[in-house]
Design brief:
This protein is α+β, with helices and mostly antiparallel strands and about 150 residues long. It is built from three helices and six strands; from the N terminus they run αββββαββα.
Length: about 150
C-alpha cells in the first residue's frame, strides 16, 4: 500500500474504496487476483475465481444465454514463515474437500480487498507481535547485562 518513495498509495486506496461491493458487469472483469462475494448471500462468504477451463459452465435461459464463472471459497491466508505455500494443483481442485460454486456474473460483486491485500492484512498482526517480542527480549537482555556481576579470575 506504499509507493516507491515510501508514501501511501492514495490512488490505490481510492480505487479500493470506490470499487468496494461494486457489481461485476461482464466476464472480462473476473480475474484470479480478486476476491468476490455473492450479492444474494447473507453470510458474507468470499470466493476466488478458478480459470480452469474444465470447470466452466454455460447456463441457458429461454430469454438469454449467459456464462457462469466457477468459484471456490477464499480461505484466510496461512501465515507460516518456515514453509513456503504451494500453489493449487489439479489434485487439490478435484478433491471432495474443495467445493466448487458456479455463479452468474450478475450476482457477483467485488470484496473489499483483493487476495494480496488480504494476505498483507493477515500478516500484519503477526509481524507486530514479533516486533514487540523482540523489543521485550532486548529490554531483558539489557537488564540482565546491567545487573549481573561478572567476576574475572
Amino acid at each position: 500500500m506504499l509507493i516507491e518513495s515510501g508514501e501511501l498509495d492514495y490512488e490505490r486506496m481510492a480505487s479500493i474504496c470506490n470499487r468496494k461491493y461494486k457489481l461485476i458487469q461482464n466476464s472480462s472483469e473476473i480475474n484470479d487476483q480478486e476476491v468476490y462475494t455473492d450479492l444474494n448471500s447473507p453470510n458474507k462468504l468470499f470466493y476466488m475465481n478458478l480459470t480452469a477451463t474444465s470447470f466452466s459452465k454455460q447456463a441457458y435461459d429461454p430469454r438469454k444465454d449467459f456464462s457462469m464463472v466457477t468459484m471456490k471459497r477464499f480461505e484466510k491466508p496461512s501465515i507460516n514463515y518456515v514453509k513456503k505455500r504451494s500453489s493449487t494443483t489439479n489434485k487439490e481442485l478435484n478433491s471432495p474437500a474443495t467445493k466448487l460454486h458456479h455463479y452468474s456474473i450478475g450476482v457477483l460483486r467485488y470484496a473489499p480487498l483483493n487476495q494480496i491485500d488480504f494476505e498483507l492484512i493477515y500478516k500484519l498482526p503477526s509481524i507486530l507481535i514479533r516486533i514487540s517480542h523482540l523489543y521485550y527480549i532486548e529490554q531483558l537482555r539489557k537488564l540482565l547485562a546491567d545487573n549481573i556481576q561478572s567476576y574475572s579470575v
